[in-house]
């Protein structure tokens, strides 16, 4: 079954009671049992809910996995992965990652005795140097947020397997339409479902997908025990959003390419970070493991001043100044003071998150309007 067909049909079926083609919203906390322990597979909605269950099966199918689990947010999904570790365990993570992930690692889990190493993962030797006998997890984000670096998932899988560690890939930016990390050797995929999978800026949700039965059992145990699950209504909204994922992502990619080329030719723009350029240092890896280059772009202004960046982000009229990404509408943001403000300035600047950096989530509007909006804002 090809991707577009899976997006619409995988994991869902007509309601057996009414024939409703859309999965019903099972807005219930509990389920009546015929006798003690005799039920229809559902006991309590924290543990399992039919609407959420359909979404979890759908996500697993899209990522060519066996098991899916949905959570109240992307960070709740990451929280579940780290809770699989124990004090004394170590994690090797990319140093260019979402600020909320960095904050969770450093301010929550580090005080429980888990050690985190942040390295540039485009240089495999840096990753290998950080791995030791205590390494239990390698955390990859690709494309990275916000510098758009591309990390070789197959190379990271080889390193993790040699170390006996799990490999988890944050696939939020690429989505399963552009990239399938399980097929490249990852053990777990994490999604901020809030972004492209939901696609309409009306849901906050996270998900984990795996094909490893033992890992799945542990994910479900933590999901049920910690209770950070997503609601039936949100599950319904994401099931609806996913039905157009392939159509939306195709347009995101087309618009992203046009906007990236406009920016790279603009005299007031210094650097443009988009993996579709042949000049991008990881372009060959992106071509090999992705089916498109997406709609996320970062760029800096000539002069590298925060004032110039702030001037641009407040002048846009079609783009909206807001955090998040992946919705049908185009968003613009200033990572240093928004999504990555929790990362210390010195650490941000080491990876290129300068005061002048602007991040775009290019939506599905008419691209001519998007380019004209950026033209007038930069002018």
Number of DSSP helices? 14
Assembly type of the shown chains?
single chain
**How far from one another are the termini?**
48 Å
Strand order of the largest sheet: 1-7-6-5-4-2-3
Main sheet characteristics: 7 strands, mixed
Mass-distribution shape: globular
Helix-strand category: alpha/beta
Please identify which CATH superfamily of the largest domain we are dealing with: Type I PLP-dependent aspartate aminotransferase-like (Major domain)
Look at the structure and give the CATH class of the largest domain. Answer: Alpha Beta
Integer count of domains? 2
Secondary-structure arrangement, i.e. CATH architecture of the largest domain: 3-Layer(aba) Sandwich
Low-confidence stretches: none
Strand content: 15-25%
Description:
With 379 residues, the chain is an alpha/beta fold. The chain folds into two domains: 240 residues, Type I PLP-dependent aspartate aminotransferase-like (Major domain) (Aspartate Aminotransferase, domain 2), CATH 3.40.640; 133 residues, Alpha-Beta Complex (Aspartate Aminotransferase, domain 1), CATH 3.90.1150. 37% of the residues lie in helices and 15% in strands. It is built from 14 helices and twelve strands. The strands form two sheets. Strands 1-7-6-5-4-2-3 form a seven-stranded mixed beta sheet, sandwiched between helices. It has a five-stranded mixed beta sheet with strand order 8-9-12-11-10. Strand 5, helix 7 and strand 6 form a beta-alpha-beta unit. Helix 1 packs antiparallel against helix 2. The model has no long low-confidence stretch (mean pLDDT 96).
């Amino acid at each position: 079954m090809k991707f577009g067909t899976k997006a619409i049909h995988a994991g869902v079926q007509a309601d057996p009671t009414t024939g409703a083609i859309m999965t019903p919203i099972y807005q219930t906390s509990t389920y009546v049992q015929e006798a003690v322990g005799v039920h229809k597979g559902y006991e309590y909605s924290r543990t399992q809910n039919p609407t959420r269950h359909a979404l979890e099966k759908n996500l697993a199918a899209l990522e060519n996995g066996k098991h899916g689990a949905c959570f109240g947010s992307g960070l709740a999904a990451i929280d579940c992965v780290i809770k699989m570790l124990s004090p004394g365990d170590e994690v090797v993570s990319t140093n260019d990652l979402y600020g909320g992930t960095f904050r969770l690692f450093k301010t929550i889990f580090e005080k429980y005795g888990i050690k985190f190493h942040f390295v540039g993962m485009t240089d495999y030797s840096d990753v290998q140097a950080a791995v030791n006998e205590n390494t239990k997890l390698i955390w990859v984000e690709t494309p990275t947020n916000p510098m758009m670096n591309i990390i070789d998932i197959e190379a990271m899988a080889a390193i993790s397997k040699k170390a006996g560690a799990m490999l988890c890939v944050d696939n939020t930016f690429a989505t399963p339409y552009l990239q399938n990390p399980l097929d490249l050797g990852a053990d777990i995929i994490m999604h901020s479902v809030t972004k492209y999978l939901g696609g309409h800026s009306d849901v906050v949700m996270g998900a984990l997908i795996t094909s490893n039965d033992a890992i799945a059992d542990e994910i479900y145990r933590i999901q049920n025990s910690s209770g950070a699950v997503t609601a039936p209504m949100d599950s319904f909204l994401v099931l609806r959003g996913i039905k157009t994922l392939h159509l939306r992502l195709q347009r995101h990619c087309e618009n992203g390419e046009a906007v990236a080329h406009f920016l790279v030719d603009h005299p007031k723009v210094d650097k443009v970070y988009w993996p579709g350029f042949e000049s991008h240092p990881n372009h060959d890896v992106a071509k090999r493991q992705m089916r498109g280059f997406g709609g996320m772009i970062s760029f800096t202004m000539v002069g590298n001043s925060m004032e110039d960046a702030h001037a641009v982000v407040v002048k846009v009229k079609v783009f909206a100044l807001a955090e998040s990404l992946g919705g049908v509408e185009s968003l613009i943001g200033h990572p240093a003071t928004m999504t990555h403000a929790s990362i210390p300035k010195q650490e941000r600047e080491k990876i290129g998150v300068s005061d002048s950096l602007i991040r775009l989530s290019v939506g599905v509007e008419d691209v001519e309007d998007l380019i004209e909006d950026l033209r007038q804002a930069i002018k």
